[in-house]
Amino acid sequence: MSTKSYNKSKTTLVIVESPAKCAKIESFLGANYRCVASFGHLRKLESLDDIDQYFNIKYKNDEKKEKQIDKLRREISQAQEVILATDDDREGEAIAWHICSLFDLPIQTTKRIIFHEITESAIQNAMMNPKTLDMNKVNSQQTRQVLDLMVGFKVSPVLWKYISSNGLSAGRCQTPALKIIYDNHTEIANHPGNTLYNTTGYFSGGIAFELNKEYDSETTMCEFLEKTCEHDHVFTRSDPKKVFKEPPQPLTTSRIQQLASNELHISPKETMKLCQTLYEEGYITYMRTDSKKYSAEFVENVKTYIIQNYNDKRYIHNEIDSLKNSMKRENDDNPSPPPEKTKSKTKKTKSESKKAKDPETDSEVKPQEAHEAIRPTHLEMRELGDNNDKIKAREKRMYKLIWETTLESCMAPAEYYSITANISAPMDAKYSHISELLDFLGWKIVANDKSLKDEKENKTYHRLNQIKQGISVKYNKITCKFVLKNLKQHYTEAKLVQLLEEKGIGRPSTFSMIVDKIQDKAYVKKEDIPGKRIVCKDFELEDDTISETETTREFGNEKNKLVIQQMGVVVMEFLYKHFNELFNYEYTSEMETILDKISKGEKVWTECCNTCLGEINGLIGKLKNVETENTPKTKSGKRSDKYEIQIDDTHSYIIGKYGPVIKCTLDPKKTMFLPVKKDIDISILEKGGYKLQDLVDPNAWTVSSKSGIGGINTNVLGTYEDQDLILKKGKFGLYVEWGENTKSLKVFGNRPIENITYNDVVKVLEETSPNATSNTVRNLTETISIRRGKFGDYIFYKNEKMFKPEFFKLNGFQGDYKSCDKNQLIAWINDTYHIY
């Protein structure tokens, strides 16, 4: 490994946040420049005790960063000049300010550079146009930090007092995000769906025509079919009309999170991690942005690329210039000299005005608004190669998504001709079929979106267009399918991000953290939701004969959705009742607006903090005034602060150390706990709508006695090999017993015993049994195989670095996983579960 030498007396030190940027930036700037990283924040604000009544803050050095602080101090002492190059957002500005404060760098004169992509031209332009710290942005970040601390340190202890001391928390943005999930949970409960019949008519040519009415009873449905036998079905058709399908919009932070979730099945947190790597490696622009604009230079490059690759100016959107960001580089009228001995020189952009204006509002463009949308830095690079060890398969897929979406956003709409064919029906109804004929691919050419489906649709269009207007047509078959409609759906992570943005809760840089936080606190879990199984009666009319078919179908099953847990419901209802003014959507959105105003110098940050503190103290004071009259009584007649719902004389529902449990008090000296079923409705529970046996889950482990409580043996997880499978804790840790067999469960490590389920234990038993090899259905690679389990076949994955294996479902694979092409199955597993 070669060692780079520096002339200490002439070295300019550039400080960034991430060490991954350093090598590239040094290569762009030359030998007299040294680039080091702060690794994020160097100081922290630990508690409200560090803030006085005037909001003077006493920061403490982060003990985890002491080595980095010492390194930066040495580097700064040996440098001729220090340039701050932290990220262009409030956190980045605050980190730069902390560096100045910690190392006694003059705030008014220390240079601050800004760039949104790690390319040579971007770095050179930033160096030629330095700024100084924007203290308004620093104040805004400081306000956000203080507000978050006040809410967390003042409201969370209230939850500990009145619900449970198990680490519950409230948060300025976390709680409104939980409220979104809670409100949807309530909507789902209030909308069980409507039972209806969907009717489809098949006439000549086998084209499916949908009836415009949905009947809600068998009687009405049969009446319609009987009248169909005598009805004269008349065909009509609309004139063709041109339909335009607009391209996708440029990628903002929230949009890339939503798109990656929907297209790649990647969480918002993982999306930001992948984008961070792509940014640091110089492949995309900065990934935290609200902007839907591109630089003028990039837009011109796109025009050239489209003409060169698609040979037709029609593919360029006729309003592409509206995507140009009008923001000019600050200080272009008085640029600093370029850095010494750089590899190349970049011409500076002439400024048309000292302060840029937004062309739509004629208002001054602020730094946050000046960001570009997320885009590739090198448009000619359609896909990433294998020449960078930091770029794996997932980064490649993310880059491809960004590249395609970016180019598509600059291209012309796809054009179709559309016709609507109608066929009359009895009871004032009609059948319809809309068909489209592709005329111009437009932006869809990027993904070569011209499939067999298009060809089939084109044939249908021509066939319908050739049928004479007003002629009578005969039905071949009419089908009436029973359906359960208008079911409310649980939200995906992508949908939650969208709603956070729409309601003004948080900022793009915090969306993924908010989504993670409500799951980390176990208020919400990402789960599969089983559907409702309903016996359905379908009808079919053929040759004037009505036939009936009964089948059992499932409606409303969902995959990987955010589901609020009982603890989340209890916490949310408590906070909604006592702290609604602090956590409602409007207040949270207004607070974000105030933070924006502080960042623009339009608000005094300490006034905002003081107002919020007064509101929090007022709400806590109100709660203390009513607690004596509303605090529930226990069986002994004493008042208890804690949340507790009495079930019977010896059992009550509480929030325990690891979540909801049933507390059983057999006598004053002996208290034990029973597990609670997952699907408990808190509102029904609070009204006394459950009996003990309705609440207790016998298939989950909880701390209890061997004999069980209330007639339920809570050690028994279920049955295995026709024996009770009993989870026990011995001198050497957890183990399981069935019949005369025992098995250590050290594989679970320090995992809380409350979280160990029957399925977890059975998989351990099957994978470690002497006959485990017989459970192998098919070996795919050294780390992946298909195994046979008690509940069906599943995917087994374990590499040499993993402490324990992971298990995945085969649901959704189209084909026979036992005999299909091995590479096809491996590719599906990789795409679905992102193992590599």
From TrEMBL:
**Record-linked InterPro entries:** Topo_IA, Topo_IA_2, Topo_IA_AS, Topo_IA_cen, Topo_IA_cen_sub1, Topo_IA_cen_sub2, Topo_IA_cen_sub3, Topo_IA_core_domain
Query: Where in this chain does the record put each Topo IA-type catalytic domain?
Result: 134-620
Q: What is its EC number?
A: 5.6.2.1
- The Basic and acidic residues compositionally biased stretches are 323-332, 349-373
* Regions annotated as coiled coil: 62-89
Q: Name one Pfam family in it.
A: Topoisom_bac
Instruction: Say if the entry is tagged with keyword Coiled coil.
Output: yes
The record's GO molecular-function terms, alphabetically, read: DNA binding; DNA topoisomerase type I (single strand cut, ATP-independent) activity
Q: Does the keyword Coiled coil apply?
A: yes
Q: Where is this region: Disordered?
A: 323-373
Q: Sorted alphabetically, which keywords does the UniProt record give?
A: Coiled coil, DNA-binding, Isomerase, Topoisomerase
User: Which reactions does this protein catalyse?
Assistant: ATP-independent breakage of single-stranded DNA, followed by passage and rejoining
According to its UniProt entry, one GO biological process term is: DNA topological change
Enumerate the SUPFAM superfamilies for this protein.
Prokaryotic type I DNA topoisomerase
Domain (Toprim): residue spans on this chain: 11-118
Q: Which family does the record claim for this protein?
A: Belongs to the type IA topoisomerase family.
Name this polypeptide is given: DNA topoisomerase
> Which species?
viral metagenome
